[in-house]
């Protein structure tokens, strides 16, 4: 398929998909969005970084809210912060309001988003981007992330999966088991998604006895 | 989920305006009320109410619904903010509405919800009845509803289904005035059953008003979920009719009936709170409306245990929970084992 025919996938969708495909579907397919404490904090954090602008510090050129795209992969979005070294090599920094999630697999969802930004920057500037960082506002930690081949492959796979979902129009099912237990509680779309009402024996029983008087 | 307030503005000639982060209600040059916007989920205006365009902008921006009703509580218009309208869900809904099996299955579930919940009203009345005659009549009506409920699985088409529903409603309303305290029955009888447009007795007038409040909440819940409130399954499509909102409301009618009976039996509403118009139409008086609105809002705050949720939820949020369950059925989402369960209405104990 020619690059211009690809329906663009939002960079943020990759992070959402990595966290939970259904969350990604609700936001990017159904355009649903509900705020919770986490998203409100995130908004407040981004209100600061989302001001487009350039500044110079320590010889770095810093771009905020920089538009990014990748024609071959069909990605587009914005980077919170990109630092350009004197030689012009970009270094993306993704701002997250919390601190790094203790569970490595959840923290890794943010790395996918960062790696996708790195791939965009490579395609845009023609310079290799081998590292970026995630800045955690609460802990004020800047965590460098190596953009290795495994992470790049993950970006490509997730991009394909998101595009297939958008094309099918089908909302993915909720998470189940231990993943659901760890991820659903902190999700702002929990009430809309109703994960606990699927595969629930109560629902089945209610449906079965719907036509019987009590 | 948090149940935020609905502001009902009923005083004619009131004017609403934006005052920083609050909504200010003016009457002539007096400020009558200030409400912080973050306490509000919906603003409902009855009849001749004015409001400023800056306020409308802000309501849209905050996702606070603005609903305009006429003097009688009939829906006129709703201001929608930018985050709404899920075209894929609506498309699925329109497709399902053309699918006879899905339509019948969903419509049947809605009727079952209504019959089960109204039957609970009668059974509770029978348990608390003071006279044998009342107890017997209420039990008889409850048995009739049980028979209607059992007949539902065998119903093969929508017309028959609507027939079963109509018959159940007739039995139910035939017995409902027996839940009014005996000494109040002269003022609040329902000897002609349910009637409307206009209601012709006080109980019917009160029910009509409460139904319009629930109807409005059901409609808002569907809109918030992204469903098209006009495309229903039980109720036929008709221009100007919110058929799906009527479908969803069926399971909440018993809630309205219960509140009506409470207001009457506790003496919060009396015969003088209703106006009889020439020719026999009966209306709830303006002052009494406030009593009903306050009681309705209070009732919606009461927390109940929804059978499918792990935490208690305010009754006022149940339409939203149900609208989302309905959206799931409409999307054709399956259980992990691949089975489709269809819509499950909210059943009270």
Automatic annotation (TrEMBL), chain B:
Gene3D superfamilies in alphabetical order: CRISPR-associated endonuclease Cas1, C-terminal domain (1.20.120.920), CRISPR-associated endonuclease Cas1, N-terminal domain (3.100.10.20)
Keyword Hydrolase: yes or no? yes
- Residue positions annotated to bind Mn(2+) are 165, 235, 250
Q: Which Pfam families match?
A: Cas_Cas1
Which residue windows are transmembrane per the record?
none
> What cofactors does the UniProt entry give for this protein?
Mg(2+); Mn(2+)
Which Enzyme Commission number(s) are on file for it?
3.1.-.-
Q: Which UniProt keywords apply?
A: Antiviral defense, DNA-binding, Endonuclease, Hydrolase, Magnesium, Manganese, Metal-binding, Nuclease
Q: Which domain of life is it from?
A: Bacteria
Output the GO biological process annotations, alphabetical, semicolon-separated.
defense response to virus; maintenance of CRISPR repeat elements
Gene Ontology MF terms: DNA binding; DNA endonuclease activity; hydrolase activity; metal ion binding
Protein role: CRISPR (clustered regularly interspaced short palindromic repeat), is an adaptive immune system that provides protection against mobile genetic elements (viruses, transposable elements and conjugative plasmids). CRISPR clusters contain spacers, sequences complementary to antecedent mobile elements, and target invading nucleic acids. CRISPR clusters are transcribed and processed into CRISPR RNA (crRNA). Acts as a dsDNA endonuclease. Involved in the integration of spacer DNA into the CRISPR cassette.
- Family that this chain belongs to: Belongs to the CRISPR-associated endonuclease Cas1 family.
What is the name of this protein?
CRISPR-associated endonuclease Cas1
């Amino acid at each position: 398929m020619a690059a211009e025919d690809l329906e663009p996938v939002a960079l943020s969708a990759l992070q959402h998909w990595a966290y939970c495909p259904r969350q990604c579907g609700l936001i990017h397919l159904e355009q649903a969005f509900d705020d919770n404490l986490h998203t409100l904090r995130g908004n407040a954090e981004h209100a600061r970084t989302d001001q487009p602008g350039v500044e110079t510090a320590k010889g770095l050129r810093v771009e905020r809210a920089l538009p990014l795209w990748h024609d071959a992969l069909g990605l587009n979005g914005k980077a919170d912060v990109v630092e350009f070294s004197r030689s012009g090599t970009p270094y993306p920094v993704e701002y997250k309001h919390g601190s790094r999630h203790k569970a490595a697999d959840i923290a890794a969802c943010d790395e996918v988003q960062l790696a996708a930004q790195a791939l965009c920057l490579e395609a845009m500037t023609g310079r290799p981007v081998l590292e970026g960082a995630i800045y955690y506002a609460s802990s004020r930690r800047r965590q460098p992330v190596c953009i290795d081949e495994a992470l790049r492959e993950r970006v490509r796979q997730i991009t394909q999966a998101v595009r297939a979902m958008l094309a099918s129009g089908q909302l993915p099912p909720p998470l189940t088991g231990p993943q659901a237990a760890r991820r659903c509680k902190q999700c702002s779309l929990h009430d809309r998604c109703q994960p606990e009402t699927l595969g629930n024996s109560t629902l089945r029983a209610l449906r079965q006895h719907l036509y019987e008087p009590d | 989920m948090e149940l935020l307030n609905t502001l009902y503005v009923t005083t004619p000639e009131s004017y609403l305006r934006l005052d920083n982060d609050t909504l200010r209600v003016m009457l002539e040059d007096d400020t009558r009320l200030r409400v912080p916007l973050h306490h509000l989920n919906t603003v409902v205006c009855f009849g001749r109410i004015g409001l400023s365009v800056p306020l409308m902008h802000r309501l849209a921006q905050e996702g606070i619904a603005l609903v305009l009703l006429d003097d009688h509580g009939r829906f006129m218009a709703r201001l929608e903010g930018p985050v709404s309208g899920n075209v894929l869900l609506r498309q699925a809904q329109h497709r399902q509405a053309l699918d006879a099996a899905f339509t019948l299955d969903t419509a049947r579930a809605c009727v079952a919800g209504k019959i089960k919940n109204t039957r609970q009203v009668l059974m509770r009345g029978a348990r608390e009845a003071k006279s044998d005659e009342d107890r017997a009549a209420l039990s008889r009506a409850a048995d009739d509803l049980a028979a209607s409920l059992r007949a539902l699985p065998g119903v093969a088409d929508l017309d028959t289904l609507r027939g079963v529903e109509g018959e159940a409603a007739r039995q139910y309303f035939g017995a409902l005035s027996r839940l009014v305290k005996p000494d109040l029955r002269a003022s609040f009888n329902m000897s002609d059953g349910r009637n409307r447009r206009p209601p012709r007795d006080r109980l019917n007038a009160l029910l009509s008003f409460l139904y319009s409040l629930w109807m409005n909440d059901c409609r808002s819940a569907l809109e918030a979920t992204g469903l098209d409130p006009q495309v229903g399954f039980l109720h036929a499509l008709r221009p100007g009719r919110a058929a799906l909102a009527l479908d969803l409301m069926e399971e909440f009618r018993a809630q309205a009936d219960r509140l009506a009976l409470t207001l009457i039996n506790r003496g919060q509403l009396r015969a003088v709170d209703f106006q009889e118009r020439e020719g026999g139409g009966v209306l709830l008086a303006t002052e009494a409306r406030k009593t009903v609105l306050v009681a309705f809002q209070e009732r919606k705050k009461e927390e109940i245990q929804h059978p499918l949720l792990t935490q208690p939820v305010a009754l006022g949020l149940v339409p939203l929970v149900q609208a989302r369950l309905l959206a799931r059925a409409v999307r054709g989402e399956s259980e992990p084992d691949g089975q489709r369960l269809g819509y499950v209405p909210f059943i009270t104990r």
